[in-house]
TrEMBL record:
Gene3D superfamilies from the UniProt entry: NusB-like (1.10.940.10)
Protein name: Transcription antitermination protein NusB
PANTHER family the UniProt entry points to: ANTITERMINATION NUSB DOMAIN-CONTAINING PROTEIN, N UTILIZATION SUBSTANCE PROTEIN B-RELATED
Organism annotation: Candidatus Falkowbacteria bacterium GW2011_GWE1_38_31
InterPro entries: NusB-like_sf, NusB_fam, NusB_RsmB_TIM44
Family as reported in the entry's similarity comment: Belongs to the NusB family.
C-alpha cells in the first residue's frame, strides 16, 4: 500500500469518526491521533493526512453540495457514513486540490470504497465522482 493511499484511508477513518459521532461533538485532531495510534503508529506522512482533512473541512459545505447534486437518488444523510466521507475526500481532491490529478483522486476513492464500503460502494463512488469530472471537463476546468 502506498503512503498516499494509506494517508487517504486514515483521513477517511478520521472523518468517519467525526461524522459518526455527530460532527461537532468530536475533536478532529484527536480523531486523527487515535486513528494513527490504532492503525498506523509508524506512519510518517501525517502532514498529507492533516492537509486532506483540513481542506475537506474547509470546503465541507461546498463538497456536500456537490455530493447532493450528483448523487441525485440519495439524500446526503442516507448515504452510508463510509461512502459519504470517501466522497468528501474525493470531491475535495477533485475540485480543491490542484496537486492531485483528477483521475488519481477518482481511482483512490474507488479503491478505498471497495475496501471499506459495501459491495456497491465502488460503483457508487465512481458514478458520483465520474459525473463531477465529466461536468468539469465540459466546462474546461
Amino acid at each position: 500500500m502506498s503512503n498516499r493511499h494509506l494517508a487517504r484511508t486514515i483521513a477517511m477513518q478520521s472523518l468517519f469518526l467525526w461524522d459518526f459521532n455527530g460532527k461537532q461533538n468530536v475533536n478532529i485532531e484527536q480523531a486523527i491521533k487515535d486513528v494513527f495510534a490504532n492503525f498506523a503508529p509508524q506512519f510518517n506522512d501525517q502532514g498529507f493526512v492533516q492537509g486532506v482533512i483540513a481542506g475537506t473541512m474547509e470546503h465541507i459545505d461546498e463538497i456536500d453540495g456537490y455530493i447532493t447534486k450528483y448523487a441525485t437518488e440519495w439524500p446526503l444523510d442516507q448515504i452510508t457514513i463510509v461512502d459519504r466521507n470517501i466522497l468528501r475526500i474525493g470531491v475535495y481532491e477533485l475540485l480543491f486540490n490542484d496537486d492531485i490529478p483528477a483521475k488519481v483522486a477518482i481511482n483512490e476513492a474507488i479503491e478505498i470504497a471497495k475496501t471499506f464500503g459495501s459491495e456497491a460502494s465502488g460503483k457508487f463512488v465512481n458514478g458520483v465522482l465520474g459525473a463531477i469530472y465529466k461536468d468539469l471537463e465540459k466546462k474546461g476546468e
